[in-house]
Design a protein that fits this description.
This protein is of the alpha/beta class. It has 13 helices and 23 strands.
Length: 396
Amino acid sequence: MLTGKTVVLAVTGSIAAYKIPNLARMLKKLGCNVQVLMTENAANFINPITFESLTGNKCLIDTFDRNFKYSVEHVALAKQADLVMVAPASANVIGKIACGIADDMLTTTVMACPCKKIIAPAMNHNMYHNPIVQDNIEKLKRFGYEIVEPDRGMLANGDTGDGRMPEEEVLFDYILKEIAKEKDLLGKKVLVTAGATRESLDPVRFITNHSSGKMGTAIAKSAMLRGAEVTLVHGHIEVKAPRFVNAVSVTSAEEMFNEVAKLAPEQDIIIKAAAVADYTPLSKSDQKIKKSDSELTLTMTRTKDILKYLGENKRQGQIICGFSMETEKLLENSSKKLESKNCDMICANSLKTDGAGFGVDTNVLTIITQQGNEELPKMSKLEAADIILTKLKNLI
């Protein structure tokens, strides 16, 4: 995902520096070229050899280090870098960058880089809230630097407060958001539904299905990485909603219908990947529970058809995609939905195919449009999500 990309990790003097080797490892795993810069103080918290072993690149500290092939190193890095992340960022280095001071390898390189720059502050609670530090952070924001808000928790000195640098997974997601994919959906609004709805029978039991929400969340993540403004309306899901996505949690099919109907008019692309329960109890008075509590007799009614509603109320230029799961006559029944629901695309997903369906990380889809059918081989749900979004983008 990051092959051909160069990320500069600028590490300053903070105990939180211990998190950065794992971040470097995560980036390298995706094929990224990682270059680490350190202040002299940072080298007191972690040995530069650690970064050199993980990245395969010399860790740069001294601006005038002669132990490498000659080049004006901060300028060379500035030309290569797709992104710079200063993490952990001490109050001292934040102040230097905000005031244009470049007196070491790290600050000189940050100043020379024209690419996106992300700052992750890490310091004592009182220091973080010092008005001078806050003013410096606001100044950086005005100049286009992105700030990763610190977490609240136990700090290095035992105090509890904010100033704690987020975990490396959070920093990793910030980097992916910026450089993982081309921003070909920038300016587009995308609404995705995912997961399983639940229809309550009583305070204990409910009707649901086996949907894990993995396909829908993969689509939401891919759309976000491609620059779209994404809203994910989800029922029960077995994975975390992606970061940087507006996640709206619902329980019942009616709640999902109402939320989607409210949001739909503003969306450019809508993808219904949720597995909505088809039926819900008509009313509590219709429920009859035998004494043994082992049998339940219910009067049921169909839930509202979200996809049909979207098709009937589709505005000019809006693209609608639905998912179809069939146990028999997959392509025939799914093709009928393309017409009857007034969709632009149906993704047909066979429950009988190995590696497809609920709960797994791969999928086997047939994409159905007015132009014909395309059967995709088994692939990860994130890969499938990219293909789906590309085809939908081309329909706009």
